[in-house]
Known about the structure:
The protein is an alpha+beta fold. It has two domains: 3-33 and 44-115, no CATH class; 118-151, no CATH class. Helices cover 27% and strands 13% of the residues. The protein has four helices and eight strands, in the order αββββαααββββ. The protein has a two-stranded antiparallel ribbon. One of its GO terms (molecular function) is monooxygenase activity. Its cofactor is heme. Heme binds at residue 95.
Amino acid sequence: KSLRDLPYLNQVINETLRLYTAVPFGLPRLVPPEGAQFNGYHVPRGITVSTQAYSLHRDHAIFPDPDKFNPERWKNPTKEMKEASLPFGGGSRICLGMHLARMELRLATALFFRALPNARPSTKEGMTASEMEIQSFFLMAPQGHRCTIET
């Protein structure tokens, strides 16, 4: 079956990327010598600016109950949701591999759950729920740096 025929899979991936963007913080950029205009504001030269996908993805006005994993919110996404979703960056520095990455995410997720339909996190090897809490430095990762699965 075509992965395009699985809209809920895409909703799950969009929601996962919203909550757990691999690189949640943009690299800092310096405003050029002539300054810049942004949304009617003048940004003086020499100021360091950065886009924070982490903050945008948790904006209560755009994503109600933003810390809740809710794939259904992507069934009919609003224009604001689409504009605020930056898991691969945005503008001229957007990830060139974004479409390949999305295709790989769809394929890997579909194959994983087709092979292991009853998969769930395992505690057999001592993995705890706290190890799965996300740590955010430059990249996001589970605190325990592992995820053990059982069926």
